[in-house]
Amino acid sequence: MSIQLFMPTFQVEECLNEIRECLESGWTGIGYKTIEFEKAWSAYTGHPYAHFVHSATAGLHLAVKQLKMKYNWTDEDEIISTPLTFISTNHAILYEKMKVVFADVDEYLCLDPADIERKITPRTKAIMYVGIGGSVGKYEEVVALCQKYDLALILDAAHMAGTRFKGEIPGKEADVVVYSFHAVKNLPMADGGMVCFRDKEDDELCRKLTWLGINKDTFSRTDTKGSYKWKYDVEHVGFKYHGNSIMAGIGLVQLKYLDRDNAYRRQLANWYDEGLAASKIHTVDIPSNCESSRHLYMILVNNRDELLLALNQVGIYPGVHYQDNTAYRMYSDGRGTCPNAHRCSEQLMSLPMHLQMTKADVTYICEQVITYAK
Ligand SMILES: *Cc1c(COP(=O)(O)O)cnc(C)c1O
């Protein structure tokens, strides 16, 4: 018996049909399915603009870059972010040579609004908020802080595909929301991401920057009549960040099942809650109005490293999300500034969470965790 942390599930036949359509039509690049997927994502989330990129990392980079351009931020300016995240989140800030100021996490392991407020300086320009594991944490309070201090808000929603808050997809208040469709995220493709800017002009610029700064994509050029369709202008030093139709085709299929799949993840989480309820094991809660995508099911234990090894011995392969980013050399400036995140990062464990698991798997994992956890 072996239960892995993550295991993506694909609707193989339906995905192959989408890919076949791309191959037969001879259109595998940007345009065609990428446009279809962007429209489907907008309709699903209610975000007015959605641009499909090759990864959330690319999307987060553009988010910081474009807001820096738009608001004339300088290299000395600061963005408040969390140390408990995948490094893409914070690298996006460093790509643009701005300063990462870490704030601590709260009981949901998301940024703690009280500590954010303590870390705001005259140089603070934005908050980079991560909905870890699919939770919203205290997102509403963070939105209020952004309004109070006139800060931009970037929502790293890499774990949040399908998460709802008070019945709605959150993020409408943010300047930009970025999703990931990486192979082991909630809506897996192989790689992909979506950048959802709130403002139209930001979305328009984003579409140029993801294709090297060229001002028209190939698809619309083939639509235009006449012999000048090869002509385009280059307005910016952009990047090669856009997504392609093969990935978008997979996304179109996966999106149809996202709500069903997330509901099953919440079922697995409920079974974990029940299985661990009688023990003293600390499980990371989800706020009451949040219907989480349940990308992760996290617990905190004192003997994390020992427990990981013990579970591996019995065929269970949990993970750790994440190592406190200030432990990395690139972010060592922030050491000591976020004691709660630091302590949690030594105790955190993500239990297996994927669609091929059964109730019996969860029961077995709970038994083993209770046996070996301290
Ligand atoms: C996975 C992840 C990313 C990066 O996503 P990619 O699509 O792989 O670039 C960014 N932020 C968080 C919190 C993530 O977990």
From TrEMBL:
Active site: 185
Iron found in the keyword field: no
Family annotation (Gene3D superfamilies): Aspartate Aminotransferase, domain 1, Type I PLP-dependent aspartate aminotransferase-like (Major domain)
Organism: Priestia taiwanensis
Taxonomic path: Bacteria, Bacillati, Bacillota, Bacilli, Bacillales
Entry protein name: Spore coat protein
Location of N6-(pyridoxal phosphate)lysine modifications: 185
Keywords: Capsid protein, Pyridoxal phosphate, Virion
GO molecular function term, any single one: pyridoxal phosphate binding
One annotated GO biological process: polysaccharide biosynthetic process
Similarity field: Belongs to the DegT/DnrJ/EryC1 family.
InterPro entries on file: DegT/StrS_aminotransferase, PyrdxlP-dep_Trfase, PyrdxlP-dep_Trfase_major, PyrdxlP-dep_Trfase_small
